[in-house]
């Protein structure tokens, strides 16, 4: 079977499934992750954590979405995909580069943040917050202003050789809902839907993407409320660790992987060094320009 | 039996009031609880609850997939909870495309269903959503009415089917095999000790009369309103002026024309009669 080689999340991947939105691998790099097509067990032996569609145990993770695919993720270096006959490649890729790769990155001991991230002169700036609070939208708006994208939705943190936290790249695609695309004047006509049934589009940003780790500069926790003013405030020392852990990607996956010690260490180090702010915006209307200006002013400041 | 007690209602029918009362009853403090720290949440339709429990982001799923998975989410949440849970919900009691109740019966211990005169609901709903009354009349009479239904954007809650006002009521109160306590908003006002006392007993809490009276006092409209004026309330919609507006019975009489009232009554007549909002001569009671 033909295989393809890619570079994403700072890793070299080989895949039996074509992933057209990834960068090709740099030649002669050792392979970190194998993505294969095959069959996947219905259950894991003795899972230590379970959700509606997944099971996990140390070094193994299984997820099954009917009519799309099942994914078995093992040892931080292998993903086996059992696809449903009716699923499109785009659908399989959406969940492969969502929960499945998220679980793999957890297994590798990185601290996987549920974050979108951009490159700034001072390093990586991450946006975290509940789904719907504007992580991708904020990154997309900053991209529109000329910043390069580092990650959308999944951004792993690791320590470099000197023990300093770095943010790893994701892959060069922003997922945008129709209303956000419209707000940012991206024509959706030419964009690919992430699934045929959703008004959600993949914007490719290959030319404006940083495919290498960046020192972690700042983490912005995006929230909103029904008041009329914006608010930007430093996150208290005592809350920093919790904000980081609460905003890890699928935090319950970690319970099953039993890798909490690594994560604690990373979260502590990142919390000590990063500039951390809570940004509260009025929930409606979404004043995107004002939000982005406020953020830009802050992450450029000393 | 399941572990979830649903605090269920059509919007603007006393759900927050009930959660405030229950929180005061549970905590049993010397002063009223903060309205921005109420129990009974998150709302059943919160996206985070779904995403964490399923392991996949709901924003990558179709609405049919989300509907099919929701009963399993509540089962999973109930199975993993060491104690009973109390969750606010505005969804009507409907079934998924597979014919399974959205709010799984296996996960359910019971439901406190709050009902209020639809004419007052209408006025309050229009105020809350900052929408014209005409639009909300259409909502109360629309069998396909749903919250956060736009396909073009992501909302922090999942789609909630409300049906018509009557459809909502009947979906809950006539659901076979569902353990339901129906409480009228009007009775919470007129005879709070009976109304709230019934909730305490129904929800399997220890009954204590002093505690009951205190919790009622601590969740009075004046307390809620003054807390909102002082600190704001997170559940207020961004465009409305306040969440706790009047909290009165019959305020529709000052706000609606006869034609507007008649439009609601003609759409909701049978259920209004059944729950005492119309008398035998079809006169509006409250």
At a glance:
Chain A is of the alpha+beta class and about 300 residues long. Chain A has seven helices and 20 strands.
Strand order of the largest sheet of chain A: 3-1-2-4-9-8-7-6-5
Taking the sheet with the most strands of chain B, its summary is:
4 strands, parallel
Give the number of helices of chain A: 7
User: Low-confidence spans of chain B: pLDDT under 50, at least 5 residues?
Assistant: none
Decide which structural class fits the backbone of chain A.
Answer: alpha+beta
* Oligomeric description of these chains: heterodimer
The strand line-up of the biggest sheet of chain B is 2-1-3-6
Number of β-strand runs of chain B: 6
N/C terminus separation of chain A = 53 Å
> In the CATH scheme, what's the topology name of chain B?
Rossmann fold
Largest sheet of chain A: 9 strands, mixed
Count of discrete domains of chain A = 2
Detailed description of the structure:
The complex is a heterodimer of chains A (302) and B (286). Chain A is globular and about 55 Å long. Chain A has 302 residues and is of the alpha+beta class. In chain A, helix 2 crosses helix 7 (288-300) and helix 4 crosses helix 6. Chain A has two domains: 4-108, no CATH class; 112-300, Rossmann fold, CATH 3.40.50.300. Chain A is built from seven helices and 20 strands. In chain A, 26% of the residues lie in helices and 35% in strands. The longest helix of chain A is centred in the first third of the chain and has 19 residues, at 89-107. Chain A has helices spanning 89-107, 135-144, 178-183, 237-246, 251-257, 260-273, 288-300; strands at residues 4-8, 11-15, 23-24, 33-37, 49-50, 54-57, 60-65, 69-74, 78-83, 111-120, 123-128, 149-151, 154-159, 165-167, 173-177, 192-193, 200-204, 214-225, 231-234, 275-282. In chain A, the strands form three sheets. Chain A has a nine-stranded mixed sheet with strand order 3-1-2-4-9-8-7-6-5. In chain A, strands 10-11-18-14-13 form a five-stranded mixed barrel, surrounded by five helices. Chain A has a three-stranded antiparallel sheet with strand order 15-17-16. Chain B is an alpha/beta fold and 286 residues long. Chain B has one domain (4-119, 145-239): Rossmann fold, CATH 3.40.50. Chain B has twelve helices and six strands. Chain B has a four-stranded parallel sheet with strand order 2-1-3-6, sandwiched between helices. In chain B, strands 4-5 form a two-stranded antiparallel sheet. The longest helix of chain B is centred in the first third of the chain and has 17 residues, at 63-79. The radius of gyration of chain B is 18 Å and the shape is globular. The N and C termini of chain B lie far apart (37 Å). The mean pLDDT of chain B is 94. The A-B interface holds A 50-54, 63, 65, 94-95, 98-99, 130-133, 153, 177-180, 194-195, 197-200, 225-227, 250-253, 282-284 and B 47-48, 51-60, 62, 65, 69, 72-73, 76, 150-156, 232, 234, 236-239.
């Amino acid at each position: 079977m033909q295989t393809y080689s890619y570079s994403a999340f700072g890793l070299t991947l080989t895949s039996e499934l074509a992933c057209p939105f990834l960068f090709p691998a740099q030649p002669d790099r050792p392979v970190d992750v194998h993505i294969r097509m095959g069959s996947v067990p219905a259950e894991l032996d003795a899972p230590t954590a379970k959700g509606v569609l997944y099971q996990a145990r140390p070094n193994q993770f299984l997820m099954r979405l009917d009519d799309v695919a099942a994914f078995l993720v093992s040892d931080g270096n292998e993903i086996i995909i059992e696809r449903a006959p009716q699923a499109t490649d785009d659908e399989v890729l959406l969940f492969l580069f969502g929960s499945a790769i998220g679980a793999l990155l957890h297994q590798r001991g990185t601290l996987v943040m549920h974050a979108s991230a951009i490159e700034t002169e001072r390093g990586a700036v991450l946006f975290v917050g509940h789904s719907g609070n504007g992580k991708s939208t904020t990154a997309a708006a900053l991209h529109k202003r000329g910043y390069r994208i580092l990650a959308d939705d999944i951004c792993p943190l690791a320590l470099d050789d000197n023990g300093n936290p770095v943010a790893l790249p994701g892959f060069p695609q922003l997922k945008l809902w129709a209303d956000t695309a419209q707000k940012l004047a991206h024509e959706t006509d030419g964009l690919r839907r992430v699934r045929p049934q959703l008004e959600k589009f993949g914007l490719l940003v290959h030319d404006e993407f940083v495919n290498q780790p960046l020192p972690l500069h700042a983490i912005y926790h995006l929230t909103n409320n029904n008041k009329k003013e914006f608010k930007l405030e430093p996150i208290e020392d005592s809350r920093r660790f919790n904000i980081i852990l609460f905003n890890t990607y699928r935090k319950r996956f970690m319970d099953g992987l039993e890798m909490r010690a690594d994560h604690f260490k990373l979260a502590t180090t990142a919390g000590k060094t990063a500039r951390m702010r809570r940004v509260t915006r009025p929930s409606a209307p979404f004043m995107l320009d004002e939000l982005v200006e406020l953020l830009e002013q802050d992450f450029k400041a000393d | 039996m399941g572990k979830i007690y649903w605090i269920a209602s059509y919007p603007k029918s006393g759900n927050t009031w009930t959660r405030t009362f229950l929180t005061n009853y549970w905590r049993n403090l010397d002063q009223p609880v903060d309205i921005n720290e109420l129990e009974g949440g998150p709302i059943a339709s919160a996206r985070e609850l779904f995403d964490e429990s399923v392991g996949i982001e709901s924003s990558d799923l179709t609405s049919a997939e989300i509907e099919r998975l929701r009963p399993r989410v509540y089962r999973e949440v109930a199975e993993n909870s060491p104690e009973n849970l109390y969750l606010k919900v505005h969804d009507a009691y409907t079934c998924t495309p597979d014919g399974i109740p959205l709010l799984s019966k296996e996960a359910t211990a019971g439901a406190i269903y709050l009902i209020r005169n639809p004419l007052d609901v209408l006025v309050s709903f229009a105020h809350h959503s900052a929408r014209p009354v005409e639009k909300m009349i259409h909502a109360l009479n629309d069998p396909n009415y749903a919250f956060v239904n736009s396909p073009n954007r992501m909302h922090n809650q999942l789609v909630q089917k409300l049906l018509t006002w009557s459809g909502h009521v009947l979906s809950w109160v006539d659901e076979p095999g569902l353990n339901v306590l129906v409480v009228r908003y009007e009775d919470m006002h007129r005879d709070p000790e009976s109304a709230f006392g019934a909730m305490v007993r129904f929800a399997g809490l220890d009954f204590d009369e002093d505690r009951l009276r205190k919790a009622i006092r601590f969740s009075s409209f004046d307390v809620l309103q003054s807390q909102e004026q002082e600190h704001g309330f997170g559940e207020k919609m961004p465009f409305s002026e306040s969440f706790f507006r009047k909290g009165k019975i019959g305020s529709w009489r000052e706000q609606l024309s006869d034609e507007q009232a008649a439009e609601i009554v003609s759409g909701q007549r049978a259920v209004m009669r059944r729950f005492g909002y119309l008398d035998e001569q079809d006169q509006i009671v409250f």
